[in-house]
Amino acid sequence: MAPRPPRIDRTAFGVSVALIVLVCAPLALAPQAGGALVVQAYESLTERFGLIYQWATLAVTVFLVWLAFSHHGKRRLGHEDSRPDFNIFSWMAMLFCAGIGAGLLYWSTIEWVTYLDKPPFELAPNSTEAVEWAATYGIFHWGISAWALYCFPAVAIAIPYYRQHAPVLRLSTGLHALIGRDGYDRPPARIVDVLFILALVGGTGTSLGLGTPMVAACISEVLGIEQTFGLQVTILLVCVTLFAASVYLGLERGIKPLSDGSILAAIALLAFILIVGPTNFLLRSGTNSIGLMLENFIRLNTWTDPVARTGFIEDMTVFYWAWWIAYGPFMGLFVTRISRGRTVRQLILGMLVLGTLGCALFYAVLGNYSMHLDLSGALPVRDIAAQAGTETAIAQSIGFLPLGPLVLAVFALVAIVFIATTYDSASYCLAASATRNLPEGTHPARWHRLFWAVAVGVLPVTLMFIGQEGGNDQLRVIQSATLVVSLPLLVVGALMAVSLMRSLREADRESET
């Protein structure tokens, strides 16, 4: 008997859309009050739950390292004779682009400004130690711990989907050992899937809300036009159109070639900056930063700033862990979809090692380049960031390179493509989560994928609006939205851990018989 074709899950679809409208409409109608409310929620939640985010991140990292090198790491996702659907370059390109978006371009270029002026560990601002840590802390925030938060849902979903033949590809698939094959239409699984949709829309809103103003600043710098909210919305519409077309074409004809192209363009951009920029400083500072991060890895994961309470942990580390947690389920679903034929060990080490090295390369080149401009007096990057905004500081830093306008245009193009590759993947996963009966090898309907490609653009427009028109700090509003949507996923993650352990024990029993 042939399996039933995929069809829309009207309950998950309808409830998710209704909740998105209920969240966005009041914020847009009352931007000042809405922004203040979101920021207030952020401050309250980080104070109460920030430590839990740190504990969870460390626990997940340790667990995945153990799992990769245990006998479970040899298990193949799919039949034992299955081979990967994609070559290693395309697999890593799709995985990397889906996980970083334009946020990596934004933060790797400008994050050091925060740490140099307000360094961790009560260091003196602008001191030698502050400079070294300013070049290091971003690599930690985008490093092994971050990719562990991405990787855990991927493992928890991929094992039941490929090894236990779960009938659907949703976040609730990660609870397969707890709910069983007949539990996907029951309220607990439905609630989990709706939470995922809301968290992913919130997470994509964060990245689009950061990336779009940066692209607008680059275009404004190249064309000599004013950077306005209208320009940002126009750029967002271009991005939405691009990733809507890509997601319509599917994985093989859309997402894969777009990811391959964006990685090659990014490598060319980084190579150019490395060659024409302060090469010796970039190599020395990058090497020093990786060593400093590895030497202090445990301290960085467990530092809670218990005495001074400067707010550093809440403003940066907890925000990042919340961001990765909000994005983690999406990465779990997408990585599951592209990882058939790979072993559990390949999946874990590919994400933790190669993902970390890729992000470290961006920080070593872009971050150290813009920091060198400021330290050498060539361009007052920090002053520009304080007076005109971080997006303008990024644009002027890149524009300071030889062939500045051309490089700035390429930088903006890479950012747009990074945005597109992230959100076509997100749209695919949103459609999969609101689809019934999606067994291995099938895809959600094209119109359904297109709908979510458009829907993910609603929240970032709202966040940018309440940040600018409501007189709120746009970055803080974006950070706050991320934390709020990620909190329920901590509970879901704990349940997924229990389910995964049951699945692993079941696999052991099957191998013994």
Can you put this structure into words, describing what you see?
- The chain is mostly helical.
- It has one domain: Amino acid/polyamine transporter I (Up-down Bundle), CATH 1.20.1740.
- The protein has 19 helices and two strands.
- It has a two-stranded antiparallel ribbon with strand order 1-2.
- The radius of gyration is 22 Å and the shape is globular.
- The mean pLDDT is 84.
Low-confidence region ranges: none
CATH class reads Mainly Alpha
Number of domains: 1
Structural class: mainly alpha
What is the CATH topology descriptor?
Amino acid/polyamine transporter I
CATH architecture heading: Up-down Bundle
Proportion of β residues? under 5%
Count of DSSP-assigned helices: 19
Distance between the termini: 29 Å
Task: Please estimate the helix content.
Answer: over 70%
- Quick check: average pLDDT? 84
Elements, N to C (H/E): EHHHHHHHHHHHHHHHHEHHH
Approximate shape: globular
Described by strand count, sense and barrel closure, the largest sheet is:
2 strands, antiparallel
Strand order of the largest sheet: 1-2
Number of strands: 2
- Give the C-alpha Rg: 22 Å
